[in-house]
Amino acid sequence: MREPPPDLERAYVLTPKGRQQLKGASATLPESALRLLVLIDGKLPLMKLAKYLQGISGPEFGKLASALVFNGYIQPVGLDRSGKPVGEDDFGAIDFYSGEESKAASGEEQKEQDFARSLEEAQNVEVTLKRQGYYVNIARRPLQKVEPVQGEAYSILVVEDNANLASITRKFLTLEGFVPRMAASRNEVVNELRKPPVPDVMLLDVLLPDADGFEILSLVRKHAALNRLPVIMLTAKATREDVMRGLTLGTNGYVTKPFEFEALIASIKSVLGLE
């Protein structure tokens, strides 16, 4: 059955099913759909969100939005008895231009007002994307179980420069039957990735003393021998813009700090296709 076209002039919110994709550590949607879910805020119409999805054409965006509506991941914002929107995204809505409607103006004045409004909308959305705290626990489940590279136990490369957090993470991974491998700097990451066998999963912090985790992710995805390595961003970089960047670069998961270790284990198992 062909999905009906969504109303691009309306704002949408995530349904419980949609929130599960971003907070339940077991995402089944493709990267492009997850990026759109990240942007859904309950205020901005769908047509305004399209320009923030890199690599998605207009027709592709329409099909993507239709599929999310048809399959129950997003729904239009409802109205209460007074006509006010209800059901806004509990992640916090993106603020955009909400000034009073301008009075009738001449053609040239209207053009200037429209330009000013468009500019302010774009600036406000960009600022909010950069500043707004945003909790997610995304883990993209593969189509089939990933087998360990070597032996029966999965090895996990933990890239974390906080010594206390690294130590605790190592202990939890060991208790869960994983084999942890640790790195706290760019050189240590390079050495671990060169050391056979390749790890089964990498937990990658963004804020490292001598490197940017997003840059490391980008290099991994361009490397012929490492581009299929499951990577989970494990970071305090928690804005919509950060999550969008990670998904665009090809991360398999994005977990914001602080986190519960049970949720982290669930994310690792998800990207490996384990129950």
List keywords for this structure.
275 residues; alpha/beta; Rossmann fold; 3 domains; 6-stranded mixed β-sheet; two-stranded antiparallel ribbon; 10 helices; elongated
What is the topology?
Layout: E1 12-14, H1 16-23, H2 31-39, H3 46-49, H4 58-70, E2 74-76, E3 78-79, E4 85-86, H5 107-131, E5 137-139, E6 155-159, H6 163-175, E7 179-183, H7 186-194, E8 201-204, E9 207-208, E10 211-212, H8 213-222, E11 231-235, H9 240-249, E12 253-256, H10 261-271
Helix pairs in contact: 2-9
Describe this structure in words.
It is a single chain. The protein starts with 11 loop residues before the first strand and ends with a helix. It has ten helices and twelve strands. It is an alpha/beta fold and 275 residues long. A six-stranded mixed sheet has the order 5-12-11-8-6-7, sandwiched between helices. A two-stranded antiparallel ribbon has the order 1-2. Strands 3-4 form a two-stranded antiparallel sheet. A hairpin with a 2-residue loop joins strand 9 and strand 10.
What's a quick, concise take on this entry?
With 275 residues, this protein is α/β, with parallel strands linked by helices.
**Number of distinct helices:** 10
Mean pLDDT: 83
Q: Runs with pLDDT <50, length 5+?
A: 88-104
Shape: elongated
Tally of strands? 12
CATH topology group of the largest domain: Rossmann fold
Alpha-beta content class:
alpha/beta
> What's the end-to-end separation, in Å?
31 Å
Please write the CATH class name of the largest domain: Alpha Beta
Largest beta sheet: what is the strand line-up?
5-12-11-8-6-7
CATH superfamily of the largest domain: Response regulator
Beta-strand percent range: 5-15%
User: Biggest sheet, open or closed, and with what strands and sense?
Assistant: 6 strands, mixed
Helical amount among residues, as a percent range? 40-55%
| Whole-number total of structural domains | 3
